[in-house]
Amino acid sequence: MADHTPETTDDGRYLLINGRRWRATDPALPEEVGQRLRRHLMSARREVGAALRAADGAAERHARRRVQLAKTALGERGTPWWEQSDSERRDRWETGLAALDDDATA
């Protein structure tokens, strides 16, 4: 079985995919939290696709907001995780996860 782990920069801050840099997920993120955030992210991405197919602008905006929340909580958007203190990093993922969980039950 081939290894599909993307190449990273030497400092681990970015993934290199097809010659393009993408910010890596915060390595301090607890695995269980990361799994939950990735589930929210994949769900939100599916919602974006469904909204686009339905030409539903309001649903698309809502789904894209959820994608942004998940990506920010993962540390892939917003203030770079390497520029945040441990408490700021923890607050980022806890706040994002709470917002996504609340939104999913609303």
What are the key terms here?
single chain; 106 residues; mainly alpha; 3 strands
Topology:
Elements: E1 7-8, E2 14-17, E3 20-23, H1 31-54, H2 57-74, H3 86-105
Helix pairs in contact: 1-2, 1-3, 2-3
Structural notes for this entry:
This protein has a three-stranded antiparallel β-sheet, with no helix packed on it. The chain is globular. Helix 1 packs antiparallel against helix 2, helix 1 crosses helix 3 and helix 2 runs antiparallel to helix 3. It is mainly alpha-helical and about 110 residues long. The protein has three helices and three strands, in the order βββααα. It has one domain. Strand 1 and strand 2 form a beta hairpin. It comes from Streptomyces spiramenti. This is Biopolymer transporter Tol.
Give the helix tally.
Answer: 3
What level of helicity do the residues show?
55-70%
Q: Kindly estimate the percentage of residues that lie in beta strands according to DSSP.
A: 5-15%
Instruction: From the alpha carbons, calculate the radius of gyration and give it in angstroms.
Output: 15 Å
Poorly predicted ranges = none
